[in-house]
Amino acid sequence: MITLPNCTTLLLNLEAGVLHVTLNRPDSRNAMSLAMVGELRAVLDSVQSELSVRALVLRGAGGHFCAGGDIKDMAGARAAGPEAFRELNRAFGAMLEQAQHAPQVLVAVLEGAVLGGGFGLACVSDIAIAHANAKFGLPETTLGILPAQIAPFVVKRIGLTQARRLALTGARFNGNEAERLGVAHFCEVDSAALDARLSEVLGQIRLCAPQANAQTKALLLATETTPLSPLLDAAADQFAAAVTGAEGSEGTMAFMQKRAPNWAL
Questions:
Q1: d(C-alpha 78, C-alpha 82), whole Å
Q2: Does residue 157 lie in a domain region?
Q3: DSSP string of 180-244?
């Protein structure tokens, strides 16, 4: 039995192996407060070892994904001095890192404002689906600050050249451009098409074995930090264990018997 945390800034709905996480501060276009960061980390902690949760779907209430950092939090930190700003900023980066390494498939549904921290959150998703009219951008430099915690994730997502252009101009762009740049994998023209695409993607995820997906995601991320030969050695060990393990045995048997494997919901 999965125990999810009580949240005030998030709406949680677990259905058919998918945890839908909705950022729920619509009055501020779901600006990322310190409380929201903490609640997102608690949610990620609660499903870290729960591979019965196959995917996490992250979206925003009220027609917006996330407009960035919470100005009220920043104002409160100003009175406490630079160290408070540092802690506030670093907490967001820690949450992004945790989200990127979640064993589940992280799907982001991007509507309305996808700015600053919201842009960074989109960049750690495994699959991103954008509305054509969504508004993306890195406005930090226009406010006299810098995209301190999201910069590494943006560079990994779209490359250094494009990240430099966007971060140093604060340029805004729509879902079509987000798809072209690689921020989003799909761009849909309306809400019905957005939901249909989400349903299609979740159906594909459900056909994949959960442990195999978790290990594959970790392997792909490790390509950025681990030298090739040790990486291939470790991958060979994991492959051998997978072939002889429960999922590998079930997958092989299902293929031979021409039936769906037991993880296909």
A1: 7
A2: yes
A3: HHTS-SEEESSHHHHHHHHHHHHHHHHTS-HHHHHHHHHHHHHTTTS-HHHHHHHHHHHHHHHHH
Average pLDDT over residues 10-20: 97
Domains identified in the chain, total number: 2
Inside any domain, residue 127:
yes
Q: What is the pLDDT of residues 89-119, one digit of tens each?
A: 999 999 999 999 999 999 999 999 999 999 9
Q: Do 18 and 141 reside in the same domain of the chain?
A: yes
pLDDT of residue 79: 66
Same domain, 193 and 214: no
Range of the domain at 177: 10-206
Query: Do 220 and 190 sit in the same domain of this protein?
Result: no
Q: What is the 3-state secondary structure (H, E, C) of 83-137?
A: HHHHHHHHHHHHHHHHHHCCCCEEEEEECCEEECHHHHHHHCCCEEEEECCCEEE
Paired tokens of 140: 């930090």
